[in-house]
Amino acid sequence: MHTKAVVLNKIHQAFALGNKTIPILKGISLSAQSQEFLSIVGPSGSGKSTLLNCMSGLTQPTAGQVLINNVNPYQLSPSKLAQMRRQEIGFIFQSYNLVPALPVFENIVLPLRLSGEKIQRKTVQNLLEKMNFAADLNSFVTNLSGGEKQKVAIARVLLTHSKIIFADEPTGAVDSISKEIIFTLLRKLADDGACVVMVTHDIELAMRTDRTIILKDGLIQENLIKPTASQLLTTMEE
Ligand SMILES: Nc1ncnc2c1ncn2[C@@H]1O[C@H](COP(=O)(O)OP(=O)(O)OP(=O)(O)O)[C@@H](O)[C@H]1O
Ligand SMILES: [Mg+2]
């Protein structure tokens, strides 16, 4: 049975700019379930990352309700919220969010260390190699290219066995072969039962997810089940 992994009910998000308040999300209602691969597309600045942050317990919206596995993350104590994020959620950030002072291996196993899980270096090496990255696990992440950093960030999430994965443009910095590999890994996570929510600018990838929402002017402009390229192009041009 598919369970509702994330539910959003009339989410609003606004940011203060000087003495003004700029509305970014203007009432977003949406749910995503287990075994579903949902993509979010929309123009740059339309609030895709903002939406993902609200959905994942990172930033509390100014109004509206968020439920993650039937729990409102913003009603939890900071320690319970941290626990929920660690145990239930994997987040691949647009900006990678790696720790510069740590080598590749330590960056990847950081969440596992926090939950007391042990992992072999070989397992990590194999996973990166599967992503077309023959990494030196001892090198510092500051020396990596954008695409390599992205692969480290993705490996970190893949190893946590999270059932809800948020990915903010996970293929934004990589070549086309790596893009295909990363997409296939995410597709498999969803097929194996996870709920995967991916922000992307890539129409060809969005087409291969189960459902695409198009975000525009702070609202969901379209909710398309298995959209075709022409459907996506038409709605995005409007
Ligand atoms: N913490 C913040 N404080 C103030 N403004 C913010 C904050 N976060 C986002 N914004 C603004 O909200 C708008 C939406 O930003 P967001 O990063 O969500 O867009 P996006 O759709 O992810 O864009 P991109 O495709 O370029 O990644 C932008 O105008 C941005 O400047
Ligand atoms: Mg963004």
UniProtKB/TrEMBL annotation:
<feature type="domain" description="ABC transporter">
    <location>
        <begin position="6"/>
        <end position="237"/>
    </location>
</feature>
<dbReference type="InterPro" id="IPR017911">
    <property type="entry name" value="MacB-like_ATP-bd"/>
</dbReference>
<dbReference type="GO" id="GO:0022857">
    <property type="term" value="F:transmembrane transporter activity"/>
</dbReference>
<dbReference type="InterPro" id="IPR027417">
    <property type="entry name" value="P-loop_NTPase"/>
</dbReference>
<dbReference type="InterPro" id="IPR015854">
    <property type="entry name" value="ABC_transpr_LolD-like"/>
</dbReference>
<dbReference type="InterPro" id="IPR003439">
    <property type="entry name" value="ABC_transporter-like_ATP-bd"/>
</dbReference>
<dbReference type="GO" id="GO:0016887">
    <property type="term" value="F:ATP hydrolysis activity"/>
</dbReference>
<dbReference type="GO" id="GO:0005524">
    <property type="term" value="F:ATP binding"/>
</dbReference>
<keyword id="KW-0067">ATP-binding</keyword>
<keyword id="KW-0813">Transport</keyword>
<dbReference type="InterPro" id="IPR003593">
    <property type="entry name" value="AAA+_ATPase"/>
</dbReference>
<protein>
    <submittedName>
        <fullName>ABC transporter ATP-binding protein</fullName>
    </submittedName>
</protein>
<dbReference type="GO" id="GO:0005886">
    <property type="term" value="C:plasma membrane"/>
</dbReference>
<keyword id="KW-0547">Nucleotide-binding</keyword>
<dbReference type="InterPro" id="IPR017871">
    <property type="entry name" value="ABC_transporter-like_CS"/>
</dbReference>
<dbReference type="Pfam" id="PF00005">
    <property type="entry name" value="ABC_tran"/>
</dbReference>
